[in-house]
């Protein structure tokens, strides 16, 4: 009897910790790895994933057509939290279980967000750009306690960011239609999105909005932000109209931005060339400890799913933060 095939689609796997790979092999799975050194693209996925019983997934797209073309696929285990790239309705219909690793991303995502906010408060992207061009100029920064910071989205990651920021003493606003204003932690105020944009010195996005709903921060929203304010996006690239953001930064209406996610990745657009913009290559959850924990959880989902107990219960899970 052939062993179930697990295809490791994520680009980085087991680089600093071999335990997840060993766990798969010891559980009797055949394991194949993404050989391309990049994210898989839709045109090649039906061929590369053919025969797989499970996929350890990154952010590559799993649409309904692809899922229908993979008759042996029973499980997608996301090494991460978002399921925006997976057609969840098609997965349900075809009996494909979807798992995520929501707990493991909270601390690294919160730290990455705070690092970006601090970098903008002290002009670090600008200093780096100027130093490389031979300039030696000083720019007055701000303390976070001087700022009103707006968090758009107050799920588990947004809440973790708020907890991390409170040590610095900013005024915190949140905009989230699912949040109960009466149940908010102390010193956090609820606002509509429009009010938050008008009040905040810095806006940080933590929204699990589906891609089909389109841009959340477009030209109108950017124009509504305070003159000289800043934008941080560690959530999803498609939330922001990148052309409109570029124009807002070029005009000086926004003073800076920090972006870890982009509509198309790898990103090669003009935002990366602006000295007041910090761009990182979608690495918000990428730390040694968190990556090892995510990989282990990702693999355990697969092993448990294919155990007799989980096959009988036909477990289905899929949660975004």
Structure, described:
The protein is an alpha/beta fold and 321 residues long. It is built from 12 helices and 12 strands. The protein folds into 2 domains: 5-103 and 287-313, 3-Layer(aba) Sandwich (Rossmann fold); 107-279, 3-Layer(aba) Sandwich (Rossmann fold). Residues 309-321 have low confidence and may be disordered. Helix 1 runs parallel beside helix 11 (288-305), helix 5 crosses helix 7 (156-166) and helix 5 packs antiparallel against helix 11 (288-305).
Task: Please state roughly what percent of the residues sit in beta strands, choosing from under 5%, 5-15%, 15-25%, 25-35%, 35-45% or over 45%.
Answer: 15-25%
How many helices does DSSP assign? 12
CATH architecture classification of the largest domain: 3-Layer(aba) Sandwich
Residue ranges: pLDDT <50 for 5 or more in a row?
A: 309-321
Q: How many β-strands, per DSSP?
A: 12
CATH class wording of the largest domain: Alpha Beta
The span between the termini is 39 Å
Strand order of the largest sheet: 8-7-6-9-10-11-12
Structure class: alpha/beta
Average of pLDDT: 92
Q: Compute the gyration radius: what is it?
A: 21 Å
H and E string: EHEHEHEHEHHEHEEHEHEHEEHH
Identify the quaternary structure here: single chain
Shape: globular
Helicity, as a percent range: 25-40%
């Amino acid at each position: 009897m052939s062993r179930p095939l697990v295809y490791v689609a994520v680009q980085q796997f087991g680089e600093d910790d071999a335990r997840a790979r060993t766990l798969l092999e010891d559980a009797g799975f055949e394991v194949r790895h993404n050989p391309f050194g990049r994210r898989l693209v839709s045109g090649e996925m039906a061929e590369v994933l053919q025969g797989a019983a499970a996929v350890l997934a990154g952010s590559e797209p799993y649409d309904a057509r692809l899922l229908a073309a993979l008759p042996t696929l029973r499980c997608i285990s996301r090494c991460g939290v978002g399921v925006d790239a997976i057609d969840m309705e098609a997965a349900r219909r075809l009996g494909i279980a979807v798992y995520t690793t929501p707990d493991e991303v909270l601390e690294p995502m919160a730290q990455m967000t705070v690092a970006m906010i601090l970098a903008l408060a002290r002009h670090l992207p600008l200093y780096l750009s100027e130093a490389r061009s031979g300039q030696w100029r000083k720019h007055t920064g701000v303390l976070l306690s001087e700022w009103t910071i707006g968090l758009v989205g107050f799920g588990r990651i947004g809440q973790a960011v708020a907890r991390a920021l409170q040590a610095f003493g900013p005024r915190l606003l949140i905009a989230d239609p699912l949040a109960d204003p009466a149940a908010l932690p102390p010193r956090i105020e609820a606002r509509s999105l429009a009010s938050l944009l008008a009040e905040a010195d810095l806006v940080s996005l933590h929204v699990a909005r589906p891609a089909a709903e389109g841009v959340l921060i477009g030209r109108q929203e950017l124009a509504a932000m305070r003159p000289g304010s800043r934008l941080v996006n560690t959530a999803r690239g498609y939330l922001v109209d990148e052309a409109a953001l570029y124009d807002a930064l070029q005009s000086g209406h926004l003073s800076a931005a920090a972006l870890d996610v982009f509509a198309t990745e790898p990103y090669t657009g003009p935002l990366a060339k602006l000295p007041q913009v910090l761009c990182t290559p979608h690495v918000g959850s990428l730390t040694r400890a968190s990556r090892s924990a995510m990989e282990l959880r990702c693999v355990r989902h697969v092993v448990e799913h294919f155990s007799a107990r989980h096959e009988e219960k036909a477990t289905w899970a899929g949660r975004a933060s």
